[in-house]
Amino acid sequence: MIQELFDLTGKVALITGGTHGIGMAIGKVLGKAGAKICVNDISDEKLESCKVEYATAGIDVYTLKFNVTDEADVDRGILEIEAEVGDIDILVNNAGIIKRIPILDMDISDYKQVIDVDLVAPLIVSKRVAPKMIAKREGKIINMCSMMSVYGRNSVSAYASAKGGLKLLTANMTCEWAKYNIQINGIGPGYIATAQTAPIREGNHPFNDLVMTRTPAGRWGEPEDVGNAALFLASKASNFVNGHVLYVDGGILANFGYVKGENEIPE
Ligand code: NAP
Ligand code: GCO
After folding, report:
1. Which of 70, 81, 103, 140 is the Cys-Cys partner for 90 at CB 3.0 to 4.6 Å?
2. Domain ranges of the chain
């Protein structure tokens, strides 16, 4: 049965920062495939409000508060999941932040904070979760990369440094852990309509035009577009996919310089 390939019944999945946006879309689709969904956040309010949304989608979610950048807090959170839900089979390192500040104006403390959340935290959480996957000889780790894993743009130096690093951390985890039947892969979303991109998407912001004209698919991505890719990487269907970054970007990375309406070449 083809459905058996994507069946996650009995698997425990932790999606960091899974209370809204891309993380929640991943939680919902993995939950629909049968996984027991755990999500953390640093905001009590978001942990509370997400319960209603998950319940509406028919998913029973285990929520808990811990900060992914704090080793002791991560240890406490994962111990709680292990005791209350079970050992983690699928880890999605989704929590992330961005600061849009030109390099000359950026305080080093801001740069370091982005590196801590977007690059160091996936290492902290994976390092805590991997030993049990190694013992079981089975596991899935998905690191939320970005098109900024391969490209820069003005004002996002810290974010691009972190996401570029995360792509190579994915490769290095693969080199060390693939032999234990753990598949570690990344997802590189393009421009997705979430809270993170609201400041550059809403209110007639010129960046909205740029995304709409440069993305060959002609639209912003939806969180569900990314969720569906995560289902593949969390399932048996990807058991020989190792150290890959799957770009879910409407083709924007494939597009060199084409701007709809400006330099269109007649077919
Ligand atoms: P989002 O709406 O800003 O959600 C990010 C989540 O991470 C939030 O739940 C946030 O919690 C949580 N978080 C932040 N710092 C944390 C910490 N220290 N400990 C625990 N949780 C923390 O972002 P999104 O757009 O859904 O993006 C999800 C991931 O995809 C991020 O890694 C992002 O960089 C990446 N991505 C997004 C896009 C895009 O276009 N949206 C494109 C490429 C990659 P609070 O809400 O409480 O702050
Ligand atoms: C930006 C955006 C991006 C996206 C995404 C692109 O300011 O350029 O916020 O960095 O969120 O990561 O893949």
Report:
1. 140
2. 2-193+221-248
Burial 6-41 (b: 16+ CB within 10 A, else e): bebeebbbbbbbbbbbbbbbbbbbbbbbebbbbbbb
Fold of the domain spanning 2-193+221-248: Rossmann fold (3.40.50)
Decide whether any atom of ligand 2 lies within 6 Å of the 100 Cβ: yes
For residues 127-149, give the mean pLDDT.
98
Looking at all shown ligands, the one closest to residue 220's CA atom is: 1
Q: Alpha-carbon distance 154 to 148, whole Å?
A: 11
Identify which of 143, 157, 159, 166 to mutate to test ligand 2's pocket (most ligand atoms within 8 A of the CB).
159
Q: Which of the pair, 259 or 219, is modelled with greater confidence?
A: 219
Name the residue with the closest Cα to ligand 1, atom 41. Answer: 192
Catalytic residue among 54, 62, 151, 159: 159
147 in contact with ligand 2, CB cutoff 6 A: yes
Is 258 a residue of the active site?
Answer: no
Site of tokens 């190792």 = 242
pLDDT of residue 264 exceeding 80: no
Q: Which of 223, 250, 246 minimizes the C-alpha distance to 26?
A: 223
Mean pLDDT computed over 60-87: 98
Pick the residue whose CA is nearest to atom 4 on ligand 1: 21
153 lines ligand 2 (CB under 6 A): yes
Average pLDDT, the chain: 96
What digits encode the pLDDT tens for the residues 106-136?
Answer: 999 999 999 999 999 999 999 999 999 999 9
